[in-house]
């Protein structure tokens, strides 16, 4: 079964892109080959571009505040498991605090690093990261696996928190449904009102397919999206 996710607004589209890039980064950074670490480094640059949208931070803070206010409405309800609810609220507050603490433009520390930016400037050119173009980068690639991995993770740790996959998923529409599912678990009586339904921001399309080639799959996805 293949599950396609179709975003209905630009915010969710951006979050899904960040999540996809973060998954790629996690895969390549734990590999051992210098070529794989090159892809991990290039992925950081891609995340920098996606997360650099001016209004992304404010959008996420507004969404987190909306979730917080929705959940706060259950604080005084005796039928709600307070410990579980407090855990969710604390999680949201930590994420908000991390976002508020960000100063300046996303990834500014990377933009101010001359060596990292020289690599970025060459990687956008086909074949531009050859050893004769970037001799210092070629020398870095000969370092130990542990050293390269640590050097890649160092600038990533200071990236904007929304690049963190866990926080991206926490805010995404997919996990809105999981938050509502958690609330359903902590509500102990059926007569407790559930949160008001929000407008759809994401649609998941599960498709059962046999191996039929790329073009038939493309046609089926287009048809399903049109019907949706």
Describe the fold and architecture.
By secondary structure, the chain is mainly alpha-helical. The protein contains eleven helices and two strands, in the order E-H-H-H-H-H-H-H-H-H-H-E-H. The protein has helices at residues 10-29, 34-51, 56-72, 82-100, 108-111, 114-123, 135-141, 145-157, 165-171, 173-186, 214-227; strands at residues 2-7, 202-207. A two-stranded antiparallel ribbon has the order 1-2. Helix 1 (10-29) runs antiparallel to helix 2 (34-51). It is globular and about 70 Å long. The two termini are 18 Å apart.
Keyphrases for this structure?
mainly alpha, two-stranded antiparallel sheet, 228 residues, globular, 11 helices, 2 strands, 5% strand
Short synopsis of the structure:
This protein is mainly alpha-helical and 228 residues long. The relative contact order is 0.17.
Furnish the topology, listing elements before pairings.
Elements: E1 2-7, H1 10-29, H2 34-51, H3 56-72, H4 82-100, H5 108-111, H6 114-123, H7 135-141, H8 145-157, H9 165-171, H10 173-186, E2 202-207, H11 214-227
Antiparallel strand pairs: 1-2
Helix pairs in contact: 1-2, 1-9, 2-8, 3-4
Gross geometry: globular
Total count of strands:
2
How large, in whole angstroms, is the Cα Rg?
21 Å
Mean pLDDT: 75
Question: Sheet with the most strands?
Answer: 2 strands, antiparallel
- Distance N terminus to C terminus? 18 Å
Report strand %.
5-15%
Question: Strands across the major sheet, in which order?
Answer: 1-2
The quaternary structure here is: single chain
**What structural category do the secondary elements indicate?**
mainly alpha
- Indicate the percent of residues in helices: 55-70%
Q: Any low-confidence stretches, pLDDT <50, length ≥5? A: 186-197
Tell me the series of helices and strands, N- to C-terminal.
EHHHHHHHHHHEH
Count of helical regions: 11
């Amino acid at each position: 079964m293949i599950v396609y996710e179709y975003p209905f607004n630009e915010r969710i589209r951006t979050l899904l892109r960040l999540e996809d890039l973060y998954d790629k980064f996690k895969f390549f950074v734990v590999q051992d080959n210098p070529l794989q670490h090159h892809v991990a480094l290039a992925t950081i640059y891609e995340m920098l571009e996606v997360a650099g949208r001016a209004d992304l931070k404010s959008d996420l803070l507004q969404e987190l505040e909306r979730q917080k206010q929705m959940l706060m409405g259950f604080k005084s309800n005796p039928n709600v498991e307070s410990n579980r609810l407090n855990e969710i609220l604390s999680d949201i507050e930590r994420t908000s605090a991390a976002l508020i603490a960000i100063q300046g433009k996303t990834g500014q520390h990377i933009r101010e690093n001359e060596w990292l930016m020289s690599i970025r400037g060459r990687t956008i050119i086909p074949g531009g990261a050859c050893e004769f173009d970037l001799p210092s980068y070629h020398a870095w690639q000969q370092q130990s696996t542990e050293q390269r991995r640590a050097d890649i993770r160092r600038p990533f740790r200071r990236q904007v928190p929304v690049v963190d996959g866990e926080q991206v998923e926490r805010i995404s529409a997919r996990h809105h449904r999981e938050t509502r599912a958690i609330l359903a678990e902590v509500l102990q009586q059926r007569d407790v009102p559930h949160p008001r339904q929000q407008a759809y921001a994401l649609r998941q399309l599960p498709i059962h397919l046999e191996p039929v080639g790329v073009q038939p799959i493309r046609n089926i996805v287009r048809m399903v999206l049109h019907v949706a």
